[in-house]
Amino acid sequence: MMMSDWSKVTRPIPVPNEWTKPFWEAARQGVLKLQRCQACGHFQHPPYATCVSCMAIDLKFEPVAGKGAIYAYTIMYHAGDKRFAAAVPYASIIVELDEAPGALMAGNLLGAPYTEAKVGRRVEVMFEPLNAEITLPQFRLATD
Description:
Number of strands: 8
Largest sheet: 5 strands, antiparallel
CATH architecture: Beta Barrel
Helix content: under 10%
Low-confidence stretches: none
Order of helices and strands: HEEEEEEEE
Number of helices: 1
């Protein structure tokens, strides 16, 4: 089974805002940090102004290990965005992290054939630098 070729893909560059800036700054350092409510302990992603669980506003970014399981996936056979055409077919996955149940992260399954994407499959974060400012957290099959 062939692997998706990401070498010819020019990814869109995310633009950090006041809520997402700490997430992107941590990713650039190779650390996955998610927003956590200091009132109820709920992790959430993407970041918001208030806790989606209890509506508190005392939110901080805390590091998580970046290991989890595939919660859902889609195999992309067509590139809606032409920049992704070189990688088709590829697995677009949603990951639920062990340390942050309920916080779902979107990414791609890298370093494995797209057919390896299965619900419940163990994955771990890896970091893909896009430019000097932005590093994209992505996922690969877990080694342990």
